[in-house]
UniProtKB/TrEMBL annotation:
Keyword tags: Membrane, Transmembrane, Transmembrane helix
Coiled coil: none
Highest taxon in the source lineage: Bacteria
Protein name in the entry: YccF domain-containing protein
Protein species of origin: Micromonospora coerulea
Entry's transmembrane regions: 12-42, 63-82, 88-108
PANTHER family: INNER MEMBRANE PROTEIN YCCF
Domain Inner membrane component stretches: 5-56, 70-120
Length: 126
């Protein structure tokens, strides 16, 4: 029940809707460019994760190969570093207040996903 409450508060006050919309727009752009469709799929995964982060975690997907590693390097160079930086800045800003600490931690949890999204999957945390 606590996860549900935190996720609803995240949607309203933590920026979950804004993050998900941003990742969704990035996914649409990637889908339109055809060659970047794998990045669009990763962006949709990030949108889903940023919409409902509490009670979920990111784990390596079995069976991913060298291609996802190379694509992740491209992702980090083109988009991942500034996405991760924005999550770090937002997380630090939210951790200034006691009420914002859970939302700051959720932003810090999104940093690895923003940096290295391909070859990962989102699962329910125990």
């Amino acid at each position: 029940m606590l996860r549900f409450v935190l996720n609803v508060l995240w949607l309203v006050f933590g920026g979950g809707i804004v993050l998900a919309l941003g990742y969704g727009v990035a996914a649409l752009i990637c889908f339109a460019l055809i060659v970047t469709i794998p990045f669009g799929v990763a962006s949709l995964r990030l949108a889903s994760y940023s919409l409902w982060p509490f009670g979920r975690t990111l784990v390596p997907k079995p069976g991913t190969g060298v291609a996802s590693g190379v694509a992740n390097l491209l992702w980090v160079l083109l988009a991942g570093w500034w996405l991760a930086l924005s999550h770090i800045v937002a997380g630090l800003a939210l951790c200034v207040t006691v009420i914002g600490i859970p939302f700051g931690v959720a932003n810090f949890k999104l940093v690895p996903a923003a940096l290295w999204p391909l070859g990962q999957e989102i699962v329910e945390s125990p």
